[in-house]
Amino acid sequence: MIEVKNLTKRYGDIKAIDDISFTVDTGEVLGFLGPNGAGKSTTMNIITGYISSTSGTVTIDGSEILENPRETKSKIGYLPEIPPLYPDMTVQKYLEFMFDLKKVKLPKKEHIDEVMRLVRISDIGKRLIKNLSKGYRQRVGFAQALLGNPPVLILDEPTVGLDPKQIIEIRKLIRSLGKKHTVIFSSHVLSEISATCDRIIVIADGKLVANSKTDELSLSLAETQKLSLIAEGGSSDILAEIKKIPGVKKYKKERDISEKTALYSVEYSNDTDIRRDVFSAMVRIHAPILEMKSGNESLEDMFLKLTQSAEKGGN
Amino acid sequence: MSAIFKREMSAYFSSATAYVVMAVFFFFSGMFFNFYVFAQNSNSLTYVFSNMFFIIMFLIPIITMKSFAEEKKQKSDQALLTSPCLLTEIVLGKFLSAFILFTICNLIFLVYAVVISFFAQPQWSVILCTLLGTLLLGGAMIAINVFISVMTESQVVAAVLGMGAGLLISMMSYFVNAVGVEWISAVLKKISFMTYYENFTYGILSITDVVFFLSVTALFLFFTVRALEKRRWS
Fold first, then answer.
1. What is the bridge-based pairing of β-strands A2-11 and A55-60?
2. Of all helices (H) and strands (E), which one includes residue A293?
3. Are B76 and A84 in contact (CB < 8 Å)?
4. Cβ–Cβ of B7/A89 closer than 8 Å?
5. Contact by Cβ (8 Å): A186, A156
6. pTM for the predicted model, two decimal places
């Protein structure tokens, strides 16, 4: 559906994005991840035709934005980082304007009503945009992107500035939109991306550093798994027992929690599960387990790893 | 184009812009009407028009200063430029809305002509010809100011630059006389708006004058489109 090929954008000597290529299939929700200033917005601005690339091409549903701007642009709904709103208009008037601007061919009133219902702004149609809270503005921006049911939705940090309840709503909305639309959605919050997207692209310093399915990304990159343990008893005994368990690679006491209890962290290889062994070992030395948690390396850790290695490579 | 035109018109009339511009326009034209028609016992609007030349130079930047500068500042230009509208449509929509507001202001001259008709026979041909000239002049100035607005992010800068340009254009006719070098003076005379505008105020409708203003308008609208296009590439 979307094909991005060797996209590069230079500002003078600075490369804002450097040779980025990826494709997005129809109906896929793609997460676009990167620290601030990595080139997410630049890439999205190029895909939507707001700015041009220095080199490289963007093809949407077979048509290229530079060769066929009208047709290509009508296939995209774009929510930029700052929603493109006119503060002096009411929500209803603004959406009517955007409807006309996008030359949408659907029945006007019904369609606008439907979109307003979808993003839950039906009750604020008569209010002036300048009087709206950040969350509402974001949703009006969202509504604007949905007008005309474009097959492709590009959303640049749609959840920034929203409260937790709104964030959950917007995520749900994006998920449900993913059934009918192809969505690219950027964020620098990992948990959000992993909860919403089928596939993740990580960019750092203008370069693409990872591109894979959400669940694969964490597995493939994490060589070890982590286990954190709070147990009561002599710490030297506990550490000695942990050491004996097969598969354990690293272990240490993180900190004392009270006089007798302490927090330990254990790293073990991906192909084993040591939780049962830990349990029986602790039973053997009469050290009650108060808490035990295991999990893949978190996306946050991975993200840092990926983006830092890109920085090192860049230097 | 009609979407942008409609939005701009409603923006003019839902904010103070349209009313302030119209109030200033009516105030000064009314004052000049009083001075040159009533006080002088004349039936000619020529002096009213020629004095309005300067007022128009200052009012047009107020009308157009928002057009692109504000869009860029509040980032709403992203909606325009990523919509399936051509750049030409966007520019024409903005231009036409400013032009229509300017035209509404100028309709007051017809009212003055009707007022004159109660006392004397107004020179309808001169009045209509001058009105046409004023609209053409306004169109050219609006195009220049829209172009200035696309070059900056600040409305104030756009307005000040626009007024500066207006002042320069108004003073061009003085420069023509002040400059000693003959060929420079000749060139200045050729590009001085007053040279072409004056003919209209005498009731002379010549194709040269019409073409001059229309080409200035077209040229600056074209520049505006190119400037928008360039923004994308920089």
1. antiparallel
2. strand A289-295
3. yes
4. yes
5. yes
6. 0.83
